[in-house]
Amino acid sequence: MSEHVPSTWTMEKLEAAFGGRWGMWLSDSGRWWAARRSALSSAELSAGCVPFLRGDGPSQLAERIQAQEEMAGQANGYIA
């Protein structure tokens, strides 16, 4: 399957993989996007967390979300 082909199944799988904390969609330009479903704390913002992410495909987006999850965990005192 192409990384740029819209796939509801792929998006649902990614959303589930990250505990439903991110909503995802594919833009008209073929970019994959994710948005946090909850507000960021001041500690998370200070750590560099962002509310929206963009990727060229689902794999890249998953990598970026994972990095954000780790960053948020560290900002909240969790060991990655």
Name its key features.
80 residues; alpha+beta; 3-stranded antiparallel beta sheet; 3 helices; 42% helix; elongated
Identify the overall geometry: elongated
* Main beta sheet: 3 strands, antiparallel
What is the typical, i.e. mean, pLDDT? 91
Radius of gyration: 13 Å
DSSP summary, beta strand count: 3
Oligomer: single chain
Low-confidence stretches: none
Structural class: alpha+beta
**Helical segment count:** 3
Helix content: 40-55%
Report the end-to-end length measured between terminal Cα atoms. 31 Å
As a percent range, the share of strand residues is: 15-25%
What is the topology?
Layout (H helix, E strand, L loop, with lengths): L7 H10 L4 E5 L5 E5 L5 H6 L4 E4 L2 H18 L5
Antiparallel strand pairs: 1-2, 2-3
Summarize the structure.
The protein has 80 residues and is α+β, with helices and mostly antiparallel strands. The protein contains three helices and three strands, in the order αββαβα. It has one domain (8-75).
Structure description:
It is a single chain. The protein has helices at about 10-15, 40-45, 60-75, and strands at about 20-25, 30-35, 50-55. By secondary structure, it is an alpha+beta fold. It has a three-stranded antiparallel sheet, covered by helices on one side. A hairpin with a 5-residue loop joins strand 1 (about 20-25) and strand 2 (about 30-35). The mean pLDDT is about 90.
